[in-house]
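ERR on first pass: missing label on line 2. Operator R.T. fixed the label and resubmitted. Corrected input:
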Amino acid sequence: MFSYAKEQMTYDLEGIKVGGQPGEYPTLMIGTLFYEDQFHEPESSLEKAKALIEDQNRISRRTSVPSMVDILIYEEEEVEWKLDFALDNIEGFFSVDVPEAEVRMKVLDYLDQQDSLHRAIYNSLNLGMDEEEFELLKEKTPAGAILLGYNPHDNSAHGRKEMIKDGGPILDKGLLTMSQEAGIGYVFLDTAATPFGEKACETVRAVPVFKSEFGLPVGCALHNTIESWRWLNDYEERENIFDKLDSSIDTIPLTLGADFIYYGPIENAFDSILNAAMVDKMVAEGAQDYFGVEISKEHPYHTLR
Amino acid sequence: MSETYPWPGDFKTGDETSPVAVVTLGHKIDLDPDKVAIWGPMKTENLGIEKVVANTISNPNIRFLIVFGKEIRGHRSGRSLMELAKNGVDEDGKIIGSPGAVPYIENISEEAVERFREQVELIDMIDVECREELEEVICKTIQKDPGCFGEPYTAIKIERIKRSKFHAEFALHSSLSVSPWGEIKPSHQEVK
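pass 2 clean. output:
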């Protein structure tokens, strides 16, 4: 339905194309492994984790909607076994989602030791990054990074853009400049999901704003808005509807041309990837009709007739 | 939301005259409403803490805030709340000494934060998950009540964005010009 006057960058991640004008390429769907309540006994969970990765791969192959695995690492002691698991069981690129700066630095050290920085998408560069982490990133540079537009000072689409562009009132320079100075090749812009009541819609509005301003792949993890929805969490029929809402909310940014989605727990691969295939088909049809966009060969538009 | 606690959040309320409030981090539990003024989970080290601060200072009878339960991994919101009480925030709104991922207080005033630091004493029960132990601490803490802090303090959520009336001149965002055919161009007329 939309096309951007600004030229849109496309990345080729070992055959996975991501970015471009809406409709050109299917969405990159990223499922997260190792949520806190996903696996209670890490040692016995690895077989289950392998099966979940295979499920995601299978539904990706079936739909032509590409996917990636996001490895969630909370604590320092998890760094080695989770990264060993990722390096042994995932082909090509993977995302490492690490909330704490101290742990992120350990991840960089270990990936460097394993000569595997070239496979990692660092999730994320955000306003919590300090000088020490920035210096380490310059020395041990991952292939790609998610730049998180979260701006607690101004969570409008404009404020989120400023965090990427010039750091807003908090950082001395924008996250984009920092990623360039670190030499990160694949830069992905995350519009930073916020809860309902905290300008949740600006997460969606920021998708076209970011694409128009920067011309880089843009996405978000809007399932977090569902997970923080207080009413839903108390709703007596929550169990019957939660997963459906968690995956279907991602269709909203996709209609505005989002290029990648962190869809939440990898268990939701089936619903989330099918939803993306459906919207990708719709967007591609419109893009071809109105803008003459050339739809890529491996796209649900062609393969899911 | 209630008259006493104006900021919406995931909490339950009890006796307003009790000096004790409890943050239960990731836990949803029921506590004795005759003993505890307000209690509930708190997951994030920014928006979550702001709500706790606002709803604590709106009831001057609350003099103790117990931070109970398993720490929220990644966010480290329990530890961040402890550090807020200990150190306050820096000029950017960052909680000094917080180990959390994005520990910024931006939607309430520094005055409100300082009032919180003066009004309540925090009791560290982070990573304690024994319910009986919590109940014991609640009972002991009630005995130490120093009395009402003074007038209620209603923290106003800071609205930083200037609102402009919507004139239907833009559909998606003021920085974008969308042609009738759906082509998106910069509008060069951004309204912040």
